[in-house]
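User: Hello, beginner here. Can you help me understand these amino acid letters and fold codes? It all follows right here:
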Amino acid sequence: MCIRDSLKYDTSSMKKIKQYIVNTFTDKLFSGNPAAICLIEKWLPDELMMKIAMENKLSETAFVVRENEQYKLRWFTPKMEIDLCGHATLAATYVITSFVEPNKTTISFHTRSGVLKATRKDNLYYIDLPAFPLKLIDTPPSIVKAIGVYPIEVYLGRDLVCVLPSKEDVYNLTPNLSEVEKLEGVLLHVTAKDEKYDCISRTFAPKHSVPEDPVCGSGHCHIIPYWSKITGKNDLLAYQASSRGGVLHCHKENDRIIIAGECVLYSKSYIFI
């Protein structure tokens, strides 16, 4: 006997949310850092936004509400709402200027980190983020235990930044994430100088249920101030050396970091709730 599955789902009474998944800081699919952008008319309950982020299982899901000529933006990891996310802001800029208001080139996002300005210029998308002040700290044994390498220097801002002896140390790093989770700071960034780029880095975020962030925009609000001081340059080209990889065009301007990158659309879909 053959049984045919004839189940049909009636979505007419369900709320429909448009969602885009965008690969950021890259010009090709399956690289860079993917972010989900949900366009909504008004804020959903926090619990529901958290569930959507958990279901997506991306490092960040962002929710965008348009109010008149302005946009409000919130970011969620699979574990919690966060105060700042660079790559999801870049993805939101791409979505709005590509699909919502294609004639718009400048956007102001109202966020938990204040008003963030974003701009589209040709194939690059720019976001203006706050730089994090860094404090040089001693290297405790817990850091060496967590990353398996003795860093040249260690800095603490919102996140922990470890400057490693070589780019090979960055590429080959296999941190103990349970030990990383015990360290100070929200995220852990490891960085080193490079011949092709001004700096390379990797980012680990077990406190947010993200083992490794493929490309971290807000992390470069720590990394770029350091390398700007070391190199004497305000314009730096950075590479995130995760398995997916990503290129960030960075400019330091006083206490702001302007980060630019390319974006590629992976998918456009609807969420039914």
Q: What stands out?
A: The two ends are 36 Å apart (CA to CA).
